[in-house]
Design brief:
384 residues; alpha+beta; Ribosomal Protein S5, domain 2; Alpha-Beta Plaits; globular
Length: 384
């Protein structure tokens, strides 16, 4: 992961490896989802915000497609029509964006691209969407195409979901494009309703050090389980557009009708949907202690009902709450990644120190820890 400004890093890398200045630089943020985990692809609400850490893409016209990142330092020559050659690598996302944009309108026949990022990879903070959105923004500018935010979201989503094969929803791309400083985004994915809600102060991030892999892993398994649960509920007589539309008062019935694990997946989706809507109202009211309690409830559901937690995350959540946090939970798809904690400012330093000590005593290493405020979305950058 690059240090310092990713814009300077990407620009410097481009000049160093390609011998000229880039024509355009764009950036997009990673994100934290406060609450609303695994609800986006089930038609429910989410409550993400953009973090201050970003991915930057510097680009210019060329005769072929060449990409380099501070992640590995190698120049990769891409053949966008042969995605299997880069499957499982960061270059797969780059090739996917190029293919999607080439199908949708004019695009240069080639280009040189340099990427730098301060978004941790595999930490559940949407490093992939930060890459696809920033690259989409850069290449559209390089092609002289003016596209509305909704199209940028769609291009980045199709690249990750359809081309790379990650069973994600649209939350990550949406917040990466539409984020506003000091705001979280309440997004009703099933209805397309978006509302900005205030989010002041800082959120602490503890990295578990356990990297999750989205493609071909447990996330895709859970999505298939949710699709099966929805089918079974429809066969049992419920006319549902998605799992999140099951009324909470019908959850006991669904738990009786469905065997495990499908019943547990439905329980998480329905209760998480209710928690997320409540969380948005608590933010509007400025009730951070109340929001903290919902984070803890959400973590219990991720662990017991969705099976997406891990030992490192469980310790970080429990320790944060015991040492003064209003609440904490695993964020991102799960099975590793990062834990977020919300704490009163006067307790933050003590909480961080105590949590790190307990984590080191249990796992023999210190977790990376940092804080962020809500930041803005994708943008073209001034560069020299």
């Amino acid at each position: 992961m690059a240090t310092g400004s990713p814009v300077r890093q990407a620009t410097s890398l481009f000049q160093e490896r390609f011998g000229s200045a880039p024509q355009v630089v764009a950036s997009a943020p990673g994100r934290i989802n406060l609450i609303g985990e695994h609800t986006d692809y089930n038609g429910g609400p989410v409550l993400p915000f953009a973090i201050e850490r970003r991915t930057a893409v510097a680009a210019a016209h060329a005769d072929c497609w060449e990409v380099i990142s501070t992640h590995d330092g190698w120049v990769h020559r891409l053949e966008p029509d042969a995605p299997s050659e880069t499957a499982g690598q960061w270059t797969a996302y780059a090739g996917a964006v190029i293919r999607v944009l080439a199908r949708s309108g004019p695009l240069p026949h080639g280009g040189r691209v340099a990427v730098a990022s301060t978004v941790p990879v595999g930490a559940g903070l949407s490093s992939s969407a930060a890459l696809t959105v920033s690259l989409t923004r850069a290449l559209l500018s390089l092609a002289g195409r003016r596209e509305p935010p909704e199209r940028i979201i769609d291009y980045a989503f199709v690249a990750e979901h359809d081309e790379v094969g990650v069973s994600c929803g649209r939350m990550d791309q949406t917040i990466a494009v539409l984020a506003e400083p000091g705001k979280a985004l309440f997004f009703e994915t099933g209805r397309g309703v978006i509302r900005q809600v205030p989010l002041g102060g800082r959120i602490w991030v503890f990295e578990t050090g356990v990297s999750h892999k989205l493609m071909g892993g447990e996330l895709n398994n859970r999505r298939r389980e949710c699709e099966t649960a929805l089918r079974l509920l429809r066969e049992a007589g419920r006319q549902l557009d998605d799992l999140a539309s099951l009324p909470p008062d019908e959850l006991p019935w669904a738990m009786r009708v469905l065997p495990a694990p499908w019943s547990l997946r439905v329980k998480h989706v329905v209760t998480e949907t209710a928690r997320t809507r409540s969380a948005a109202e608590l933010l509007l009211a400025g009730d951070l202690p109340g929001l903290g309690r919902l984070l803890v409830e959400g973590q219990r559901s991720l662990s017991a009902d969705y099976g997406s937690s891990c030992a490192e995350a469980e310790l970080l959540v429990d320790s944060s709450v015991r040492h003064g946090a209003w609440g904490a939970r695993l964020t991102g798809a799960g099975w590793g990644g990062a834990v977020i904690a919300l704490a009163p400012p006067e307790r933050e330093a003590r909480m961080v120190a105590e949590v790190q000590d307990e984590f080191r005593a249990r796992f023999g290493r210190l977790p990376a820890v940092w804080a962020t405020s809500a930041a803005g979305g994708a943008r073209l950058e001034r560069h020299t």
